[in-house]
Amino acid sequence: MNLPIRMENNPACTDCELHEEIKSVCVPTVIYPDSNQDSNNIVVFIGQNPGFQEDQKNEPFIGRSGDMVKRAYIGGCNIQDKAVIYLTNGVRCHTISNETPKPRHYRSCVPYTTRDLHYLVNQWYHQENKGRFIVVTLGAPATSSFYKDVLDQKKVSLTEAFNRNGKSFMWDVFKREIFVFSTYHPAAVMRNNNYINAVESHMQLVSDCLDGTMAEPSEPDIVPTRSPRR
User: Fold this and answer.
1) Which CATH number do you get for residue 196?
2) Is residue 162 part of a domain?
3) Phi and psi (nearest 5°) for 20?
4) pLDDT per residue over 31-61, tens digit each?
5) Which of 197, 185, 203 is CA-nearest to residue 82?
């Protein structure tokens, strides 16, 4: 596929106040160079927002959290061998003191997320022997924003999103089937190492989806209980 190495945004963006005290406004979406750029599959990882190092270098996923995503999330199931991987954030600017971005910050950046995905989906769709297009959201804020602001769904908690892992969506904007997965943000894993077990499980589902071996998620049938007959 003829895909871009970087997808620049708007360095002159003033849609929210975050641009006022940072170095890099609208950190771009970039291809992960260690991924298989000849693959028919595309996986887009959407994190929260750039950290200090990402802001200084105008590059996503290069701090401690980014290193964990590359090493454990992607490398743990060899996803880099199965797909072209892109790295981006739901909010494109660093927050001073690393505060969690507000919903309004995500809404301000939705046009950039939608634009990047729209371009990649169209490039992917026009290739021969189509594979699968997957979005992986990292952490509760990025996940809630993606479902609400991009998918136009009701607010979805991270736990609810876990139960939807592997569900496909046909967006009106894209007119293409895209699979969505969610998992813990790497910062949460660094605070609680037990979360890595869930991350490994979620990434294995992504790998299975790429291989075409993942069972299709479904809502369980709830059968009301009845008192036994006497």
Assistant:
1) 3.40.470.10
2) yes
3) -75, -30
4) 999 999 999 999 999 999 999 999 999 999 9
5) 203
